[in-house]
C-alpha cells in the first residue's frame, strides 16, 4: 500500500506524462460536469485503485476491445493476453497472498500493523473471494473482517502514540472500507488533522481522504478552511496545488469569501497548473454560489486567452455554464471561440493533446456546445461559425469513435443554431454514416442525432427511414426507444398498419421489458391516430386491458378510449404538428394579473432562489460569521472595534489586538492574508494599500485616522482606475487568442535570445536574396526587443483578429494598438552610433535581449525611392502577422519607415531607410534607449501603484558608501535612468517607463545594510528584469 | 455532467468509486449493485449506454472489470465512452510503472 501511494504522489505532480496531457484536460471537462476537480482525478482514482488491489501488470494485450485492462486478478509478471489473464486468474490466490505479505513486510510504515493479522488478512481474503462463485457467505465473512479491521483502526487513530505516518496508512485503509460500504466516520476528523499537520505526502493523503469522506455541507469541513487558507499562501507549489484541488472538490459555501481573493491571485500565477486549478476552483464557486464570483467575470476572459491550453480549456467550463444561463451576455466572445476551435481543428495544439491522433477531442466538443448555445436563434452570431462547423464536419474523417463523438456534437450544433441549408444537408449526410454503421453504439448515436434533424426538417430524415424501421427489430431496447419516440410519424412510405403489427409483435415478445412496452404502446397510440380502423389495435387493446402490469393496462385503456373517439384522438395527436415545438410561456406572463393582485393585497414580493437562500443563511448560521462582514462595513477600518472583527491588517503579523480577536471568533485564521467585506471581497490592491500606509510604523506626523482616510480615498480612486484599465485590457485579450501555443514561455526574458537570433539570421538571408532580386537598396536594421515579446504577442493577437475580420467588436482595438506602436517608434531615437549602443548599454535592454541585424552591404546595390519597398519583403512573410508599413520620419534626403513582424517567439521590428536623393545609402546605425521622460508626481505614483497588479519584492545588500538612501537612489538614477519621484524619510519612490504606456514603479526603503525594493508594473515580465537590473546596478557600484 | 465514476468487477465488488455529487454511503452500495446488474444483463449486441433512473450509464468492459460512468442527459455518450478508454490508457501508463517499481524493491 505504501508503495502504491508513493506512486500516486508522483502522479500528483500532475504534469502527467506528456503523452497523456489529454487526460487532465478531459478530466477537467468531466469536472465540468461534475463540479469536482478531476484535474487531479487520475491521482485520486489511481489511489483508490492501488490501495484496493494489487497493481495491474499493465502491459498491453490486444483483446477484442483493443487494449484490455487486466485487473487485480493478475499477479505481476508478463501475461500472454486476455486468455492467459483468465487462466492466470484461476491460480491467482497464491501469488496475491505472497505479494501482499511481501508488500506489508517491506513497507516500514506497516511495521506497526504486523502484529495485527486482521489487516493483512483482509486483502488476502478479498483476493480469494473473487475466485468463488457463491458470493453470499463470503460477503458475511467480509463484513466480519472489515468490522474487525475498523475496530482496530478506531483504536489506532485515537491512540496518542500514533504517528502521522501511521495515520496516513490508516486513512488509506479507511478509504477502502468506505468504498466497500462500511461507515468509517470516526476517522473523518483525523483526516482533517492529517491534512493540517502532515508533511507533503501525509497532507496529500489527508486531503484525499477528506475529499472522499466529506460532502459540501458536512460541518467538519469548516475545520479544513484554515488549513486550506494556509496552504493557498504556501510558496510550495505542491501545497498550493493540493489546496486548490480540495477547494474545487469540496468547500463550504459560506466560507468562500475567506479564500476567494487568494484564489483570484492565483489566476496570475506563473505556473500554468496553478492557474488552471484556480480557474477550476472558481468554476466550483460559480456552481455553488454564482453571485459570489460575479465580479471576476472579466478575469475569466483573461483565463480564456491564457497562453496555456489547459487554463483556456478549464475556463471553457465556466463559459459553458454562464452562456447556458445567459447567452446574450457573451455574444462578443463568439469570434474567440470560433478562432480557438479553428486552431484546435487545424491541429495547432501541441501533440500532447491528441487522443488517437485526434486533436483535443473533448475540448472540441466543449467548444461546439458553447457555439451551439451562442448561435441559437441568432442569425448574426451563427454566421460567424458556419465556416468552422463546415470545417469540423469535413475534418472528422478518421474512423475512430472519438471523431464520431465530435461529429455528433457538430451535428447537434448545426441543428441548434440558425439554420443554413447547406450545412444542414451535410450534417444529415453525416448522420447516415452513423445510422448505417454496424456498430451498435454508433447506431444509437445516429438515431439520437436524427431526433435533432427531425425537429428541424423531417424531409432530411426521410432518406434514413428504412433503416429506422429496421431498427425497430433491433434486440436492444435502448435503440428501439430512440426509434419509437420520434419517428413513428415519419412513415410516409410504409403503411401505419404494417408498423403497428410489427410493434404488436414486439409487444408480445416476452423478453421486452415493461418499460419498453410502455414506449411501444405509446408509439402505437400515435400511429393509430393515422391509421383508420385497425384490427391489430383492437386486438392489442383487448389483450393488454387485462395485463397484470398496471402501467400497461393504463396505456391500453387510454388507447381504447381514444380509439373509440377518433376525432378527439386526432386533435390530441395531430400528425402535422408533431414536429412543432409547443409554445411555452416561460415568463408565465398569464400569471401577472394574479401576482399584481396578490401584491396589492400586501403579499410579499417574490424573491429569487439564491436571494432566499442567502437570507436563510444569514438568519440561521451555525457559526457566527458576522465579524467578516463587519470589519468591512462602509467606514473602512472602523470594523476593528467590532467585538470579533478580523481586521484588514491581518497581513501584518504580530498585531496583538488581532490575535485576541481571532480567539474570540473561535476559528483560527492565522495568516489569513486576504480580506473580504460585506459587498463580497476587497481587491488585493486595497490590502496592499493598507499595508503600504501602515508599513512605516509610527510614521511621524500622520495620525492613524488620517492614514485610514487616505486609504479610503485612494481605494475608490484606485478601483475606478483599475476597473477601466483592466476592463479594456481584458477585452483586448478576450478578442484575441492564445498565440503560438506553448511556443513562447514569456517568463524568461533572457533565455530567448538564442532562438531569436537564430530566427533573425535566417530572415536576413531571405532579405538579402530578395533585395538582390528586387534591387531595392536600403539597409535594413532590425532589432528584436525581446522584452517586448509579451506585449507583442498580445498585439499580434489583436491583429490576427483584425485580419480575420471576424470579431466586429474588436475592430477598435487594433487601431489603438497601432497607435501605440507608432508612438513607440517615434520615441526610439534613430540614427545614433551602433557601437555606442552595445558598449555603453545604459538602458535596461541588456545586449543579450536584442539583436540587431543589418543586411549585407553588398545587397545595397541600387536605389529605390519608394518608401514602401519594405512591402516586398513583407510579401515573403505572409505566414507571419505583420503591421502595415508606417513612415516614421523623413527629410529631403532620407526617409525612415518601419513595420513590425510578429513571429512565434519574437517581435521583429524592421526599419527601412531609403534615400530620396538617389545617392546610395551606405549604412544606418541604430541606438536604442528607453524614453526617460517619465516624470510623475507623488500622487500619481500612488494611484498608479495601486492600479498595478503585478509586483516583485527584492532585498539587496548595499555597501557602506550607499547606505544613505539618496546615494542609492542616485545610483539607480544614473545607471538605469530611473526617475526619482519622491523621497520620504527612509523611503524612496522611483518610476520609469520601459515601454510606451507601460510604466514600472519602484518603492525602496533602506534598513540597516539592506535595501528593500518593491517593484510594480502592469506588465509582469518587466518586473523580474527590472529587479535583476537594479541588483546589477547596485552591486556594480 | 458526470455524476459518478465506478469500477466494478463481475462479482459486483466495487474497485473504485468516485461520486461527484454526494450520495449517502448506504445508498451507494445499493446503487453500485444495481448498476453492475444492469451492465451484466447487456449482451454485446446491445449498445453501451443504459438509462438508469435519472442517469444515463455509459459502460465499458475490460476483461472482468466494468468501468461505468453515470452522467446526466446533457452529456455526449460517445465522448464519455472514449473518455473511459482514455482513462484506462492512462491507468495503463501509471500501473506499468508500479510494476517495475515493485520488482525493483523485491
From TrEMBL, chain A:
Biased composition (Low complexity): 82-92
Biological processes per GO annotation: intracellular protein transport; vesicle-mediated transport
Xref: InterPro entries: Adaptor_Complx_Large_Subunit, AP4_complex_esu, AP4E1_C, ARM-like, ARM-type_fold, Clathrin/coatomer_adapt-like_N
Organism whose genome encodes this protein: Fukomys damarensis (Damaraland mole rat)
Assembly notes: Adaptor protein complex 4 (AP-4) is a heterotetramer composed of two large adaptins, a medium adaptin and a small adaptin.
Pfam families associated with the record: Adaptin_N, AP4E_app_platf
Domain AP-4 complex subunit epsilon-1 C-terminal positions: 932-1035
Record key words, sorted: Golgi apparatus, Membrane, Protein transport, Transport
Membrane topology of the entry: Peripheral membrane protein
Region (Disordered): 53-92, 685-704
A GO cellular component entry from the record: endomembrane system
Family: Belongs to the adaptor complexes large subunit family.
Compartments where located: Endomembrane system
Superkingdom in the source lineage: Eukaryota
Job of this protein: Component of the adaptor protein complex 4 (AP-4). Adaptor protein complexes are vesicle coat components involved both in vesicle formation and cargo selection. They control the vesicular transport of proteins in different trafficking pathways. AP-4 forms a non clathrin-associated coat on vesicles departing the trans-Golgi network (TGN) and may be involved in the targeting of proteins from the trans-Golgi network (TGN) to the endosomal-lysosomal system.
Gene3D superfamilies in alphabetical order: Leucine-rich Repeat Variant
Name of the protein described by the UniProt record: AP-4 complex subunit epsilon
TrEMBL record, chain B:
Locations listed in the record: Endomembrane system
Main location: membrane
One Gene Ontology cellular component: cytoplasm
A Pfam family this chain is assigned to: Clat_adaptor_s
Highest taxon of the lineage: Eukaryota
InterPro entries: AP_complex_ssu (IPR016635), AP_mu_sigma_su (IPR022775), Longin-like_dom_sf (IPR011012)
Limits of the AP complex mu/sigma subunit domain: 1-100
Gene Ontology biological-process annotations: intracellular protein transport
Topology of this chain in the membrane: Peripheral membrane protein
Assigned keywords, A-Z: Membrane, Protein transport, Transport
Assembly description: Adaptor protein complex 4 (AP-4) is a heterotetramer composed of two large adaptins (epsilon-type subunit AP4E1 and beta-type subunit AP4B1), a medium adaptin (mu-type subunit AP4M1) and a small adaptin (sigma-type AP4S1).
Function statement: Component of the adaptor protein complex 4 (AP-4). Adaptor protein complexes are vesicle coat components involved both in vesicle formation and cargo selection. They control the vesicular transport of proteins in different trafficking pathways. AP-4 forms a non clathrin-associated coat on vesicles departing the trans-Golgi network (TGN) and may be involved in the targeting of proteins from the trans-Golgi network (TGN) to the endosomal-lysosomal system.
Family indicated by similarity: Belongs to the adaptor complexes small subunit family.
Protein name according to UniProt: AP complex subunit sigma
Protein's organism: Fukomys damarensis (Damaraland mole rat)
Amino acid at each position: 500500500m505504501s508503495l502504491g501511494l508513493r506512486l500516486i504522489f508522483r502522479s500528483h505532480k500532475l504534469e502527467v506524462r506528456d503523452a497523456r496531457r489529454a487526460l487532465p484536460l478531459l478530466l477537467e471537462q468531466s469536472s465540468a460536469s461534475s463540479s469536482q476537480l478531476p484535474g487531479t482525478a487520475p491521482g485520486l482514482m489511481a489511489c483508490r485503485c492501488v490501495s484496493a488491489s494489487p497493481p495491474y501488470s499493465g502491459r498491453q494485450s490486444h483483446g477484442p476491445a483493443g487494449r484490455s485492462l487486466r485487473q487485480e486478478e493478475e499477479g505481476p509478471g508478463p501475461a500472454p493476453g486476455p486468455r492467459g489473464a483468465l487462466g492466470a486468474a484461476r491460480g491467482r490466490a497464491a501469488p496475491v497472498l505472497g505479494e501482499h505479505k511481501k508488500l506489508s513486510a517491506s513497507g516500514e510504515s506497516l511495521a506497526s500493523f504486523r502484529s495485527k493479522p486482521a489487516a493483512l488478512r483482509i486483502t488476502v481474503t478479498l483476493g480469494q473471494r473473487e475466485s468463488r462463485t457463491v458470493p453470499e457467505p463470503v460477503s458475511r465473512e467480509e463484513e466480519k473482517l472489515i468490522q474487525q479491521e475498523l475496530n482496530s483502526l478506531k483504536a489506532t487513530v485515537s491512540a496518542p502514540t500514533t504517528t502521522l505516518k501511521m495515520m496516513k496508512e490508516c486513512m488509506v485503509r479507511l478509504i477502502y472500507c468506505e468504498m466497500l460500504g462500511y461507515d468509517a466516520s470516526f476517522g473523518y476528523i483525523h483526516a482533517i488533522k492529517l491534512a493540517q499537520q502532515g508533511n507533503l505526502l501525509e497532507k496529500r493523503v489527508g486531503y484525499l481522504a477528506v475529499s472522499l469522506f466529506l460532502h459540501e455541507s458536512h460541518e467538519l469541513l469548516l475545520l479544513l478552511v484554515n488549513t486550506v487558507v494556509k496552504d493557498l499562501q504556501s510558496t510550495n507549489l505542491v501545497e498550493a496545488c493540493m489546496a486548490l484541488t480540495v477547494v474545487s472538490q469540496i468547500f463550504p459555501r459560506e466560507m468562500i469569501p475567506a479564500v476567494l481573493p487568494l484564489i483570484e491571485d492565483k489566476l496570475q500565477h506563473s505556473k500554468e497548473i496553478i492557474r488552471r486549478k484556480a480557474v477550476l476552483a472558481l468554476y466550483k464557486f460559480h456552481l455553488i454560489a454564482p453571485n459570489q464570483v460575479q465580479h471576476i467575470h472579466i478575469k475569466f476572459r483573461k483565463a480564456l486567452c491564457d497562453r496555456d491550453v489547459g487554463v483556456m480549456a478549464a475556463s471553457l467550463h465556466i463559459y459553458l455554464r454562464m452562456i447556458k444561463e445567459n447567452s446574450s451576455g457573451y455574444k462578443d466572445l463568439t469570434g474567440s471561440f470560433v478562432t480557438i476551435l479553428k486552431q484546435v481543428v487545424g491541429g495547432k495544439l501541441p501533440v500532447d493533446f491528441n487522443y488517437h491522433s485526434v486533436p483535443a477531442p473533448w475540448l472540441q466538443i466543449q467548444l461546439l456546445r458553447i457555439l451551439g448555445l451562442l448561435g441559437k436563434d441568432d442569425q448574426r452570431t451563427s454566421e460567424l461559425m458556419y465556416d468552422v462547423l463546415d470545417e469540423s464536419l469535413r475534418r472528422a474523417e478518421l474512423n475512430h469513435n472519438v471523431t464520431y463523438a465530435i461529429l455528433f456534437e457538430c451535428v447537434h450544433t448545426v441543428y441548434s443554431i440558425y439554420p443554413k441549408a447547406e450545412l444542414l444537408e451535410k450534417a444529415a449526410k453525416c448522420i447516415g454514416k452513423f445510422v448505417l454503421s454496424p456498430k451498435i453504439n454508433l447506431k444509437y448515436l445516429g438515431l439520437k442525432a436524427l431526433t435533432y434533424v427531425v425537429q428541424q426538417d423531417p424531409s432530411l430524415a426521410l432518406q434514413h427511414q428504412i433503416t429506422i424501421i429496421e431498427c425497430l427489430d433491433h434486440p436492444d431496447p435502448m435503440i428501439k426507444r430512440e426509434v419509437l419516440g420520434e419517428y413513428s410519424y415519419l412513415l410516409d412510405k410504409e403503411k401505419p398498419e404494417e408498423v403497428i403489427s410489427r410493434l404488436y409483435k414486439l409487444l408480445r415478445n416476452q423478453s421486452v421489458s415493461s418499460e419498453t412496452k410502455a414506449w411501444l404502446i405509446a408509439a402505437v397510440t400515435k400511429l393509430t391516430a393515422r391509421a383508420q380502423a385497425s384490427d391489430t389495435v383492437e386486438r392489442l387493446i383487448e389483450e393488454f386491458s387485462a395485463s397484470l402490469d398496471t402501467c400497461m393496462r393504463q396505456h391500453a385503456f387510454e388507447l381504447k378510449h381514444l380509439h373509440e373517439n377518433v376525432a378527439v384522438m386526432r386533435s390530441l395527436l395531430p400528425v402535422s404538428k408533431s414536429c412543432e415545438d409547443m409554445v411555452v410561456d416561460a415568463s408565465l406572463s398569464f400569471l401577472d394579473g394574479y401576482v399584481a393582485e396578490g401584491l396589492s393585497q400586501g403579499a410579499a414580493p417574490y424573491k429569487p432562489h439564491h436571494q432566499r437562500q442567502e437570507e436563510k443563511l444569514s438568519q440561521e448560521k451555525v457559526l457566527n460569521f458576522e465579524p467578516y462582514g463587519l470589519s468591512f462595513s462602509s467606514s473602512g477600518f472602523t470594523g476593528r472595534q467590532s467585538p470579533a472583527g478580523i481586521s484588514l491588517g491581518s497581513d501584518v503579523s504580530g498585531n496583538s489586538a488581532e490575535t485576541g480577536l481571532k480567539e474570540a471568533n473561535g476559528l483560527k485564521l492565522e495568516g489569513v492574508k486576504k480580506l473580504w467585506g460585506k459587498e463580497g471581497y476587497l481587491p488585493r490592491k486595497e490590502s496592499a494599500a493598507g499595508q503600504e500606509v501602515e508599513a512605516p510604523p509610527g510614521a511621524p506626523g500622520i495620525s492613524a485616522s488620517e492614514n485610514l482616510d487616505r486609504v479610503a480615498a485612494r481605494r475608490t480612486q484606485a478601483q475606478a482606475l483599475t476597473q477601466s484599465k483592466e476592463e479594456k485590457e481584458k477585452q483586448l485579450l478576450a478578442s484575441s487568442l492564445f498565440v503560438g501555443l506553448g511556443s513562447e514561455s514569456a517568463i524568461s526574458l533572457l533565455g530567448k535570445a538564442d532562438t531569436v537570433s537564430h530566427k533573425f539570421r535566417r530572415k536576413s538571408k531571405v532579405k538579402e536574396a530578395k533585395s538582390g532580386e528586387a534591387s531595392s537598396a536600403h539597409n535594413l536594421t532590425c532589432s528584436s526587443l525581446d522584452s517586448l515579446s509579451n506585449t507583442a504577442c498580445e498585439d499580434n493577437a489583436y491583429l490576427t483578429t483584425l485580419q480575420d475580420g471576424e470579431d466586429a467588436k474588436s475592430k477598435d482595438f487594433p487601431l489603438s494598438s497601432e497607435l501605440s506602436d507608432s508612438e513607440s517608434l517615434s520615441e526610439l531615437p534613430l540614427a545614433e552610433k551602433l557601437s555606442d549602443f552595445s558598449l555603453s548599454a545604459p538602458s535596461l535592454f541588456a545586449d543579450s535581449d536584442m539583436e540587431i541585424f543589418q543586411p549585407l552591404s553588398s545587397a545595397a546595390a541600387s536605389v529605390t525611392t519608394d518608401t514602401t519597398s519594405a512591402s516586398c519583403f513583407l510579401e515573403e512573410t505572409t505566414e507571419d502577422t505583420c503591421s502595415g508599413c508606417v513612415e516614421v520620419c523623413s527629410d529631403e534626403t532620407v526617409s525612415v519607415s518601419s513595420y513590425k513582424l510578429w513571429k512565434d517567439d519574437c517581435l521583429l521590428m524592421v526599419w527601412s531607410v531609403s534615400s530620396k536623393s538617389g545617392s546610395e545609402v551606405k549604412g544606418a546605425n541604430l541606438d536604442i534607449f528607453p524614453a526617460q521622460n517619465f516624470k510623475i508626481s507623488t500622487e500619481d505614483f500612488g494611484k498608479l501603484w495601486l492600479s498595478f497588479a503585478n509586483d516583485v519584492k527584492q532585498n539587496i545588500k548595499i555597501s557602506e558608501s550607499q547606505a544613505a538612501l539618496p546615494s542609492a537612489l542616485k545610483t539607480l538614477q544614473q545607471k538605469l535612468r530611473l526617475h526619482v519621484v519622491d523621497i520620504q524619510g527612509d523611503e524612496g519612490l522611483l518610476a520609469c517607463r520601459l515601454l510606451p504606456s507601460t510604466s514600472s514603479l519602484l518603492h525602496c526603503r533602506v534598513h540597516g545594510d539592506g535595501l528593500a525594493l518593491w517593484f510594480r508594473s502592469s506588465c509582469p515580465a518587466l518586473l523580474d528584469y527590472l529587479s535583476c537590473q537594479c541588483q546589477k546596478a547596485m552591486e556594480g557600484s | 455532467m458526470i455524476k459518478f465514476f465506478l469500477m466494478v468487477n463481475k462479482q459486483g465488488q466495487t474497485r473504485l468509486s468516485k461520486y461527484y455529487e454526494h450520495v449517502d454511503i448506504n445508498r451507494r452500495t445499493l446503487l453500485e449493485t444495481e448498476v453492475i446488474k444492469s451492465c451484466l444483463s447487456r449482451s454485446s449486441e446491445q449498445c453501451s449506454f443504459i438509462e438508469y433512473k435519472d442517469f444515463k450509464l455509459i459502460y465499458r468492459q475490460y476483461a472482468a472489470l466494468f468501468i461505468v460512468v453515470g452522467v446526466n442527459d446533457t452529456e455526449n455518450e460517445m465522448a464519455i465512452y472514449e473518455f473511459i478508454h482514455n482513462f484506462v490508457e492512462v491507468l495503463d501508463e501509471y500501473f506499468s510503472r508500479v510494476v517495475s517499481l515493485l520488482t525493483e524493491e523485491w
